[in-house]
Structure formats: C-alpha cells, structure tokens
Amino acid sequence: MVDKWIESNLKVVNVIIFILSFVAVYTFPISFSAKNQAIQGGCEGKGDSSCEYAVVSRIEGTGNRIYVIEHIGEGLFQGILLDGTYLEKKQFRIQTDCDCEIIDVNIR
Asked: Which of 18, 35, 37, 51 is 20 to 30 A from 85 (CA-CA)?
C-alpha cells in the first residue's frame, strides 16, 4: 500500500521539483539590459567559451545537472540538462555577456 502511494505521488513530486527549478532559472538577478551590464562591468560584447563554468554553476545551483554543453559562439551555450530527479532531459540555450552573466535563458 505504501509502495503504491509513493509511486502515485512520485510523479507529483517530480513535477513540483521541475517547476521550482524552472522558476529558479528564470528568476536569476537579471534586472537590466545586457548592454548596461557590459558597460557597468567594464567590458563590451558577449561571453566566450571561458563562461562555460559560470553557466554550469548557475544551472547546477538550481538542482539540475548538465548532461551536455557546448559554446556555439557570440556568448551562446546550448546543451541538454537533467532535471533534479535525473528522469527527464531538457534542451537549453543560454546567452552570456562579457562578464559571464546570464542574460537570456531558453529551456525546452
């Protein structure tokens, strides 16, 4: 009986974890435009491949794990992440500025 209860509620818990992770990704402190960030940080332009660590750290800070990541130029990173339960894979695309701050997130 307990096994059936756990089984039926595990999906609900997984959905809640995914929603919280999704909300966390979209609530990063992005309060001004990328251009303003670059000017305040003393640099101009988009991030480069050295920003990969910052991207991985931000995603893994939400309880998700990076499965695959690649830098595709102009501050863009794309890849696949595993949700906190490791049961579901999601595609992502993240853009960074020259200070490796995340300025755009797209998860499918």
From this structure: 51
Range 3-7 average pLDDT: 61
Retrieve residue 9's tokens. 């509620």
> Residue 40 — very low, low, confident or very high, per pLDDT cuts 50/70/90?
low
51 phi and psi angles, rounded to 5 deg? -80, 0
Separation between Cα atoms, residue 70 and residue 72, nearest integer Å: 6
DSSP state of 75: T
Q: What mean pLDDT do residues 32-57 have? A: 73
Taking residues 93-106, what's their average pLDDT?
93
Cβ count near 81 (within 10 Å): 23
Q: Which residues contact 58 (CB under 8 A, 6 or more apart)?
A: 25, 28, 102
